[in-house]
Design a protein that fits this description.
It contains 16 helices and 19 strands. The chain is α/β, with parallel strands linked by helices.
Length: 457
Amino acid sequence: MIKTYVLDTNVLIQAPYALQCFEDNQVILPVAVLEELDNLKKAEGEKGANARKAIRLLENLRRKGDLLAGVPLAGGGSLRVEKNFVDVELPPDLPEDKMDNRILKVCRGLADRADAQVVLVTKDILLRIKAQIIGIRAEDFTTEQVSGREEQYTGRAQVYVPEELLKEFKKKGVPLESLYQTDDQGVQRTPELWENQFLILTGDQSVKKTLLGRVENGRAVPLRFKKSKPYGIAPRNAGQYFLQEALMETADKAPLVIVKGMAGTAKTFYSLAAGLEKLLNNPTGEYRRILVSRPNAQFDADIGFLPGDEQEKISPLMRPIIDNLEQLIDSNEEQRYADETELKGKIDEIFDRGLIQTEALNFIRGRSIVKTYLIIDEAQNMTPNQVKGIITRAGQGTKIILLGDPNQIDRPFLDERTNGLSYAAEHMKGSPLCWQITMEAEECERSKLAMDAVKRM
């Protein structure tokens, strides 16, 4: 049965191409949505850019026919602008002058008149609740959704390996067909493993023998950088060994690294350590610089009104980066803060020499970045469209590291299933150019208190 989908403005602001995602169904745009797009078209940053993209798409469709009568879409459905139903009555608690309620009027009017099922598509949870109050079915825009947290790819797996193959693994690896897992009843099964997936291998006769490896070209191979200590930092758990492997590998072999995990698992700390190792301790010319960006929920709207140049405007967002650099630059925990001026001088020198640069996310998009070690911290606050824009702009010799915790999202209309970090992780799963690892809760190394809070809270 053909459905009638009524789109809210926030769907087009996050995904301008959304009009093309409803197959052979009818898509309705209330006039209120056109007004909101008009108000947003001059906005700064991602919001304004996406509003303009949606408007250009509507203009292309307008040229093909009458939008009030309906214009066919490439996917087989149609798009129509709806200007009627201004007289539809809503419950008295829903004032008519609000844009959201004007959209609800269109939904209610269509539902009363049409034979097709009417569905409101919005990323606004409260609007979905209000739609339910008046008897209208409402959904999130699911095209960009990935699996729930429990089903998302973690980039790691535990497997058993026959005891007689342990020595062979250490030398040249073993075929994936020789690995197995067991279910609750002890039945062996062959696991589904992805390219570049990290492995904890246990000997099937002596469970205390565990080795760390990675999937490569149909084999489980040992880690290459297990003995490395980037910028003097040694891994403390399996997750950090895997993280180190992904970060230390060259940009040609591992140009994209995606790291998910809660605070305190050393995601940012280790990423900076590996970058400084490549740039300072063992300079091979692989990278020209370290470039750090950190998206923020309100940043697009606020940056133009903050005082100072770009670096002064974004410095509050980059304070966590400075905190990590302070620990890396001076590894002596007892003496690190004895001379704050000297420590600040060391940090300033790194920035003054251009070894580390910080830029706003909306300034990075659209550029072609070459031979750069690019860290995107707090990447869970990116939209799928933003993360696509970053990854597709990677130039020759650039390594992109996406870091974040999908459970700590500050941006409206994003959640653990629709944020850019999770989106990239699921869509890049299995790519030979993407290495992923999800840090586990017990791998929190920030402090005893942080570890205890992770377990209890």
